[in-house]
Amino acid sequence: MQALQARSSLQIRRQADRQPHWQPKVWRPSGKREEEIIELCECMIDVTAALFSVSSKDMRKTGRTPFEVSRVRQIAMYVTHVVLGLSMNEVGRGFQRERTTVLHACHLIEDMRDDRDFDRIIAMTERVAAAAFRNHEAA
């Protein structure tokens, strides 16, 4: 029981350390219409593909993809969920993946953030996403 409480408090402290000191005003779909969600995810795919020099066409493929492509897709799904505030179901629909795939990606990326260098990469990706969608208005 104590180990569980210690782990929970450690996770809370880690999350608090990762919270930006500013909360950007980020575009969120009005009414979370399906087309807006898909458009948002498509834009996030393009942004992360450009950041990591991966083909956005490869990121959109269904089925198995090379490790580099799937890792960038996992990062994109994580950032879409965490920064842009879409639910895992919505991210799954936007990325044409199952909700459990998004859940796995979010857990994996969160665990990998224990590595300081990887955490910097994810933090940079979060800042780029927040800046890219800060002033975007819903159609």
Automatic annotation (TrEMBL):
Gene3D superfamilies: 1.10.1750.10
Pfam families (alphabetical): Bac_DnaA_C (PF08299)
GO function terms (MF aspect): ATP binding; sequence-specific DNA binding
Chromosomal replication initiator DnaA C-terminal domain residues: 40-109
GO annotation, biological process: DNA replication initiation; regulation of DNA replication
Region (Disordered): 1-28
Compositionally biased region (Polar residues): 1-12
Protein name: DnaA protein helix-turn-helix
